Amino acid sequence: SDPDPLQDFCVADLNATISGNGFPCKPRSQITSADFFYDGFTKEGNTSNIFGASVNPANVLAFPALNTLGISMNRVDFAPGGMNPPHSHPRASESGVVIQGKLLVGFVTTDSVYYSKVLTAGQMFVIPRGLVHFQRNVGEGKALAYTAFNSQLPGAVILSTTAFASSPPIPNEVLTQAFQIEDEVVNSIRSKFGA
Ligand code: GLV
Ligand code: MN
């Protein structure tokens, strides 16, 4: 869903001092083969965190050759029981394929209908743009998936950290009212995210 490019490529100059919708192009004279290949997916991600999962984004910031091309990918690793928590991508639809393990993949529509399925190696899923979704490892061992986006920088709004770990924080009275919970519940959730 990004705008169409007006040239073959425009490898991002991430250090440019001007900002805009995307990045300016690195001078053509400085472009080599190395710009168009990316090694960041070769290693397993570190899943030692509260969610037991690791999302490694190959977006324009990591792989500048994606600039203006409207695509990007993630490598997502899951420890047993690990989860990529409920989140949405404001600028992209997502498709994904399970490479290893057994993943429960679910999303919720804007009218609160939940769709889900348990997928194993080779099976694919799609998450329509902007909808809240998650993946959870429901197998015995590790799991691995690759996801793909129709944006060079899809963005991710993670529900739990957006609500409870913003900086500065959303006032407690907003969260107690929104989620119909007590003040101490808000504080307890905040503390789990180190907020
Ligand atoms: C999975 O949902 C991802 O955003 O990579
Ligand atoms: Mn996603």
Automatic annotation (TrEMBL):
<feature type="binding site">
    <location>
        <position position="89"/>
    </location>
    <ligand>
        <name>Mn(2+)</name>
    </ligand>
</feature>
<dbReference type="GO" id="GO:0009506">
    <property type="term" value="C:plasmodesma"/>
</dbReference>
<keyword id="KW-0964">Secreted</keyword>
<feature type="disulfide bond">
    <location>
        <begin position="10"/>
        <end position="25"/>
    </location>
</feature>
<feature type="binding site">
    <location>
        <position position="133"/>
    </location>
    <ligand>
        <name>Mn(2+)</name>
    </ligand>
</feature>
<keyword id="KW-0479">Metal-binding</keyword>
<dbReference type="InterPro" id="IPR001929">
    <property type="entry name" value="Germin"/>
</dbReference>
<keyword id="KW-1015">Disulfide bond</keyword>
<dbReference type="GO" id="GO:0048046">
    <property type="term" value="C:apoplast"/>
</dbReference>
<feature type="binding site">
    <location>
        <position position="87"/>
    </location>
    <ligand>
        <name>Mn(2+)</name>
    </ligand>
</feature>
<dbReference type="InterPro" id="IPR014710">
    <property type="entry name" value="RmlC-like_jellyroll"/>
</dbReference>
<dbReference type="InterPro" id="IPR011051">
    <property type="entry name" value="RmlC_Cupin_sf"/>
</dbReference>
<keyword id="KW-0732">Signal</keyword>
<dbReference type="GO" id="GO:0030145">
    <property type="term" value="F:manganese ion binding"/>
</dbReference>
<keyword id="KW-0052">Apoplast</keyword>
<feature type="domain" description="Cupin type-1">
    <location>
        <begin position="39"/>
        <end position="187"/>
    </location>
</feature>
<feature type="binding site">
    <location>
        <position position="74"/>
    </location>
    <ligand>
        <name>oxalate</name>
    </ligand>
</feature>
<dbReference type="InterPro" id="IPR006045">
    <property type="entry name" value="Cupin_1"/>
</dbReference>
<keyword id="KW-0464">Manganese</keyword>
<feature type="binding site">
    <location>
        <position position="94"/>
    </location>
    <ligand>
        <name>oxalate</name>
    </ligand>
</feature>
<keyword id="KW-0325">Glycoprotein</keyword>
<dbReference type="Pfam" id="PF00190">
    <property type="entry name" value="Cupin_1"/>
</dbReference>
<protein>
    <recommendedName>
        <fullName>Germin-like protein</fullName>
    </recommendedName>
</protein>
<comment type="similarity">
    <text>Belongs to the germin family.</text>
</comment>
<feature type="binding site">
    <location>
        <position position="84"/>
    </location>
    <ligand>
        <name>oxalate</name>
    </ligand>
</feature>
<dbReference type="GO" id="GO:0010497">
    <property type="term" value="P:plasmodesmata-mediated intercellular transport"/>
</dbReference>
<feature type="binding site">
    <location>
        <position position="89"/>
    </location>
    <ligand>
        <name>oxalate</name>
    </ligand>
</feature>
<feature type="binding site">
    <location>
        <position position="94"/>
    </location>
    <ligand>
        <name>Mn(2+)</name>
    </ligand>
</feature>
<dbReference type="GO" id="GO:2000280">
    <property type="term" value="P:regulation of root development"/>
</dbReference>
